[in-house]
Design goal:
Helices cover 42% and strands 8% of the residues. The protein is mostly helical and 106 residues long. It has one domain.
Length: 106
């Protein structure tokens, strides 16, 4: 999961909140990789996306029981960048077009 955008109570927001909630409900383990906005500025998000995809590659080598997959929840430019990078690497991307409001705060 991606960024370090949080609400006033410290909870993740947006696509990250959707992803975490979905993963918990589906019993999928997660690893959080925050962007380094202070040290890398605006390039922190895309650089974080690259790190996440390299991590996925390590987990899903040729002998892995499952292929690499990106599940994209509604987000913004950061989500779009991750999907673009993943597709360029040949990683399958599933995009969820809509997440009901009741699930946003998971």
């Amino acid at each position: 999961m991606g960024s370090n955008i949080r609400d006033h109570k410290g909870r993740r927001k947006g696509a990250d909140a959707h992803a975490k909630g979905w993963a918990e409900r589906a019993g999928v383990n997660t690893t959080v990789m925050d962007a380094n906005w202070v040290g890398q500025g605006r390039s922190g998000g895309p650089r974080r996306n690259t790190r996440m995809l390299k991590y996925l590659e390590l987990l899903c080598d040729e002998d892995a029981a499952h292929p690499g997959l990106v599940i994209a929840f509604p987000g913004g430019p950061g989500t779009d960048d991750l999907c673009t990078q993943a597709e360029a690497l040949g990683v399958r991307v599933l995009r969820f077009p809509y997440v009901p409001a009741a699930r946003e705060a998971d």
